[in-house]
Amino acid sequence: MIELKGVTVRYPNGVVGLDDVSLTIPDGQFVVVVGLSGAGKSTLIRTINGLVPVTEGSLVVNGVEVAGASNRKLREVRSGIGMIFQSFNLVKRTSVMNNVMIGQMHDIPLWRSFLGAWSAEEKEIAYQSLERVGIVEKAWTRASQLSGGQQQRVAIARALAQDPQVMLADEPVASLDPPTAQMVMKDLQRINRDLSITTLVNLHFLDLARQFGDRVIGMRGGKVVFDGTGVEADDKVFEDIYGRSLTADDVLPGQA
Ligand SMILES: Nc1ncnc2c1ncn2[C@@H]1O[C@H](COP(=O)(O)OP(=O)(O)OP(=O)(O)O)[C@@H](O)[C@H]1O
């Protein structure tokens, strides 16, 4: 479970990234977070992962208080959280397999990961993770030779190999074409349902948010301004979240 109570995040330059946010995200929920650029979506994800310190309030992730936590505690929290980024963040010049192995690295001494001296069990976990995203035949391909959608699948497999309780995805489909964006969102949804991994996905396309958000959280100016289901999130709700009328850029191209 993820629980924020009155969480405010103030960056060192004085900008408020989160403004008195209270949220409870039960285990296994699939949550889509929407809002314009600068609304605080990335700050929310980075705060849950302990990368940005909580200025005020309480944030408990899987039973651990993150606000004011020691580096050791933060490492413990992070080991249970898989991260997915817009830009995939793979090591491009090495194989898919090695990239996925990096997901298990918090359990593996660094020298072994450099030598690629993986145990049979570690390899099995990596294969299973690649199977979950349907890309096992690419295990020994260099990451640089994959399409964007394939790279994002490898990034998802890398996160899965970590055996996370929570998955945080920051604009995971923003660099992908519309059909590939659909496929990657379906991968995330299927994994959430099959493995009950609590999943938070930042999105800016409202049609994807409606389609995939069992729960949609709308942010504006660091505050939660909507919290409901994808079905409830009609155009009026999105206009309130965005503080403006909707435009063609707000939907995935080809879906309008
Ligand atoms: N490291 C930082 N230092 C100072 N201010 C920051 C920092 N990171 C983000 N901010 C500010 O915090 C606010 C929230 O930003 P955040 O990146 O969380 O928004 P976002 O909704 O994820 O937008 P985007 O989709 O553009 O990333 C913005 O005003 C932003 O300028």
Structural overview:
The protein is of the alpha/beta class. The protein folds into two domains: 1-80 and 169-246, 3-Layer(aba) Sandwich (Rossmann fold), CATH 3.40.50.300; 87-163, no CATH class. Helix content is 35%, strand content 23%. It has nine helices and ten strands. The strands form two sheets. The chain has a six-stranded mixed beta sheet with strand order 6-7-8-3-9-10, with helices on both faces. Strand 9 and strand 10 form a beta hairpin. The radius of gyration is 18 Å and the shape is globular. The site of adenosine-5'-triphosphate has 12 residues, from helix 1.
Secondary-structure map:
Blueprint: E1 2-10, E2 16-25, E3 30-34, H1 41-48, E4 56-61, E5 64-65, H2 71-79, E6 81-85, H3 96-102, H4 110-115, H5 120-132, H6 148-161, E7 166-170, H7 178-195, E8 198-203, H8 206-212, E9 215-220, E10 223-228, H9 235-242
The chain binds adenosine-5'-triphosphate.
Distance between the termini: 35 Å
Mean pLDDT: 91
User: In total, how many beta strands?
Assistant: 10
Helical run tally: 9
Pfam families: ABC_tran
Protein name: Phosphonate ABC transporter ATP-binding protein
Keywords: ATP-binding, Cell membrane, Membrane, Nucleotide-binding, Translocase, Transport
GO molecular function, one term: ATP hydrolysis activity
List keywords for this structure.
256 residues, binds adenosine-5'-triphosphate, 10 strands, alpha/beta, Rossmann fold, 35% helix, 4-stranded antiparallel β-sheet, P-loop_NTPase, 6-stranded mixed β-sheet, 2 domains, 9 helices
